[in-house]
Write a structure and sequence with these properties.
Blueprint: E1 5-8, E2 11-19, E3 29-35, E4 41-48, E5 56-58, E6 61-62, E7 65-66, H1 73-76, H2 81-90, H3 108-113, E8 128-129, E9 134-135, H4 139-144, E10 150-151, H5 157-160, H6 175-188, E11 189-208, E12 216-231, E13 238-249, E14 260-270, E15 284-285, E16 295-297, H7 298-301, E17 306-307, E18 312-314, H8 325-328
Parallel strand pairs: 10-15
Antiparallel strand pairs: 1-2, 2-3, 3-4, 4-5, 6-7, 8-9, 11-12, 12-13, 13-14, 16-18, 17-18
């Protein structure tokens, strides 16, 4: 068969396999290959994030968990939205093509010594394993942690210094410092109203059937946009990707609490719209908690947010009036 493929910024991406959730990897996974014009190609492995509304993320298998990077785990692994759209439009064509990871990066000696690695379809993050330590060499985590992808801007500098103000580390409500971040961003940047561009519409069903919790089924309808933020200081301009979404509660619990209509949420912040050979954005702006997830893990946000399930809290309401959404709503 001909694999579904798309060319973005002179890089061809080809869908080659799909694995549904399993007991060892509890989420849908994809195998994609990228082809560069110089003849190089990469095997890419992506997983679907439940807390991020079904967005695809670049990853590898790290001792029982998906590896998410060491700096900004939301943006580091986020797959470019043009590729996200292509995947969702074409995934039905490869759903009957399961894949096995062949671990091409392992030497023959390591393959013989660690044959159990070959039984998992999702690639392991480590290539050199001993009884006491592992050395991370696999190219996916190297790319995820590539510091040359990071852009720092003055508006977020003071917030990035404090770990408690970063996404994933929010132990108390971030409402106050989110407002401060928003104010600092609007002080440094101007919304280019003419740049607002609709991209596409998508839907995702959050279906949590944890045996220790009441079943929760939420239908999320999202419209995706991007806009341009112009620097007032002559520095690099920013591209903000965001969504306007509705949540329809199709379960019997939290019925009033989780009915959400036309709210705004930031998804990704960058200085370039270009895609990398690994399917991610070429660059991302280190942005404290300004970029986070609509549903956050309860262990990271149990003191604030609205309860969704045993696993997640809804924190999207904290972002609805931040800059530039407070200005976009007036247009």
């Amino acid at each position: 068969m001909e694999f579904p493929n798309i060319t973005i910024d002179n890089i061809r991406f080809q869908l080659e396999g799909y694995n549904p959730p399993t007991p060892t990897v509890d989420r849908a996974c994809l195998k994609i290959r990228s082809f560069l014009t110089d003849g190089r190609n990469y095997e890419l492995y992506m997983y679907q994030s439940e807390s991020s509304l079904g967005f695809w993320r670049l990853g590898c298998w790290d001792r029982g968990m998906m590896y998410k990077g060491s700096v900004d785990y939301v943006q580091q692994t986020f797959i470019h939205l043009s590729l996200q759209q292509f995947i969702n439009n074409n995934i039905s064509k490869i759903e009957r093509l399961p894949f096995k990871n062949t671990h091409p990066e392992l030497t023959e000696k390591l393959k013989a010594e660690n044959s159990e690695l070959l039984t998992n379809s999702f690639p392991f993050c480590y290539t050199k394993l001993t009884a006491f330590k592992s050395t991370r060499e696999y190219y996916i985590p190297i790319h995820i942690n590539d510091v040359s992808r990071i852009v720092t801007i003055d508006a977020f500098t003071e917030f990035n210094r404090d770990e408690s103000k970063r996404c994933g580390f929010l132990k108390v409500s971030p409402e106050a410092h989110l407002k401060a971040i928003s104010a600092k961003l609007s002080e440094k940047y101007l919304l280019d109203r003419s740049s607002i561009q609709f991209m596409y519409t998508d839907t995702y069903t959050y279906n949590n059937t944890n045996i220790h919790d009441s079943p929760v089924k939420l239908h999320i309808i999202s419209n995706y946009f991007n806009c341009h933020l112009i620097s007032k200081d002559g520095k690099a301009n920013l591209y903000l990707y965001y969504m306007i979404y509705n949540i329809v509660n199709q379960s019997s619990v939290h019925a009033e609490q989780l009915l959400v209509d036309r709210r705004y949420f930031p998804l990704f912040l960058t200085t370039s719209k270009r895609i990398s050979p690994f399917g991610t954005f070429e660059y991302y702006v280190l942005s404290a908690s300004y970029i986070c997830k609509l549903f956050e893990h309860r262990k990271q946000s149990d003191t604030f947010g609205q309860s969704v399930s045993k696993d997640h809290q809804y924190i999207g309401y904290l972002y609805d009036d931040l800059f530039p959404f407070n200005e976009i709503k007036k247009i």
